[in-house]
TrEMBL record:
<dbReference type="Pfam" id="PF00763">
    <property type="entry name" value="THF_DHG_CYH"/>
</dbReference>
<dbReference type="InterPro" id="IPR036291">
    <property type="entry name" value="NAD(P)-bd_dom_sf"/>
</dbReference>
<dbReference type="InterPro" id="IPR046346">
    <property type="entry name" value="Aminoacid_DH-like_N_sf"/>
</dbReference>
<comment type="function">
    <text>Catalyzes the oxidation of 5,10-methylenetetrahydrofolate to 5,10-methenyltetrahydrofolate and then the hydrolysis of 5,10-methenyltetrahydrofolate to 10-formyltetrahydrofolate.</text>
</comment>
<keyword id="KW-0658">Purine biosynthesis</keyword>
<feature type="domain" description="Tetrahydrofolate dehydrogenase/cyclohydrolase catalytic">
    <location>
        <begin position="4"/>
        <end position="115"/>
    </location>
</feature>
<feature type="binding site">
    <location>
        <position position="226"/>
    </location>
    <ligand>
        <name>NADP(+)</name>
    </ligand>
</feature>
<comment type="similarity">
    <text>Belongs to the tetrahydrofolate dehydrogenase/cyclohydrolase family.</text>
</comment>
<comment type="pathway">
    <text>One-carbon metabolism; tetrahydrofolate interconversion.</text>
</comment>
<dbReference type="InterPro" id="IPR020630">
    <property type="entry name" value="THF_DH/CycHdrlase_cat_dom"/>
</dbReference>
<dbReference type="GO" id="GO:0004477">
    <property type="term" value="F:methenyltetrahydrofolate cyclohydrolase activity"/>
</dbReference>
<dbReference type="GO" id="GO:0005829">
    <property type="term" value="C:cytosol"/>
</dbReference>
<keyword id="KW-0368">Histidine biosynthesis</keyword>
<dbReference type="GO" id="GO:0035999">
    <property type="term" value="P:tetrahydrofolate interconversion"/>
</dbReference>
<keyword id="KW-0560">Oxidoreductase</keyword>
<keyword id="KW-0554">One-carbon metabolism</keyword>
<dbReference type="GO" id="GO:0006164">
    <property type="term" value="P:purine nucleotide biosynthetic process"/>
</dbReference>
């Protein structure tokens, strides 16, 4: 079985970005907004900020109290939209209950939407137009391309219909001429649907959702799920995906958790930041 490891693919993305950055007369700037002190969000934002600076981007994290009113957050986003030095804006989810995340997304300028989640970018993606693509789905596609997994004419089943992963990934798969089924909790006979797949993607956030008997022998399996199931003796989170371990006995290729899709999400965020900067500010090579 081929392990579809994420770090080598992420490293290839970073090398490409370093070449682009070396030719720009400016430094792209990423601004991440975090509300509250949710441990997972704190950890994830720290990772994004650290990797951005390691790559050579300018990065800043704006931290607000969990009690911040929605209007105050929207006013901050409006300032970031107007700031000519800010190329990318990301509001870390989940947000507190008094904040409607869809309203927040609609407030972000599509030109600076490096998460690829605004209605404008999501709509452009489905129309096959140029867009800032949602980071995790873009990362999945980059992994499949890196390991030369063919998609044209293949049967792809995506389990999970979220705006974050399932829906944009379906659009990206269609763009590569795959035949796509978007399955979910109401899908009848889910095991039968999954067994049709040449490429099976699990993106629900449920431990062990995809079992060995749901995978056709020789299928490619992409595990997008990241589930925390406890901590090890060093106090670090133990992460598992949505795919049961014994699926590796029947799949021809499988992304590990951790070390699969996860690293690609951050890589594609930084890819989007550089892309957004070039589109807005221009490139000496004529790319903007």
């Amino acid at each position: 079985m081929l392990e579809l490891s994420g770090p080598p693919v992420a490293e290839a993305v970073y090398q490409e970005l370093q070449v682009q950055l070396s030719k720009l007369p400016y430094v792209p700037h990423l601004r991440v907004v975090r509300l509250g002190e949710d441990p997972a969000s704190v950890s994830y934002v720290r990772l994004k900020d650290r990797q951005a600076k390691k790559l050579g981007l300018s990065s800043q994290v704006d931290v607000f109290p969990e009690s911040t009113p929605q209007d105050e957050l929207l006013a901050h986003i409006a300032r970031l939209n107007a700031d000519l030095e800010v190329d990318g804006i990301l509001v870390q989810s989940p947000v507190p209950k008094q904040v409607d995340f869809n309203t927040v997304l609609e407030a972000i300028s599509p030109l600076k939407d490096v998460d690829g989640l605004t209605p404008t970018n999501a709509g452009r993606l489905w129309m096959g137009l140029e867009a800032l693509e949602s980071c995790t789905p873009a990362g999945v596609m980059r992994i499949l391309k890196h390991y030369q997994i063919p998609l044209a004419g293949k049967e792809v089943v995506i389990v999970g219909r979220s705006n974050l992963v399932g829906k944009p990934l379906a659009a990206l798969m269609l763009r590569e001429n795959a035949t796509v089924t978007l399955a979910h909790s109401r899908t009848r006979d889910l095991p039968d649907v999954c067994r049709r797949a040449d490429v099976l993607v699990a993106a629900v956030g449920k431990v062990g959702l995809i079992t060995r008997d749901m995978v056709r022998p020789g299928a490619v399996v992409v595990d997008v799920g990241i589930n925390r199931v406890g901590q090890n003796e060093k106090g670090r989170d133990i992460l598992v995906g949505d795919v049961a371990p014994d699926v590796s006995e029947v799949a021809s290729a499988l992304t590990p958790v951790p070390g699969g899709v996860g690293p690609m999400t951050v890589a594609m965020l930084l890819h989007n930041t550089v892309k957004a900067a070039i589109r807005r500010r221009g490139s000496p090579l004529g790319g903007g």
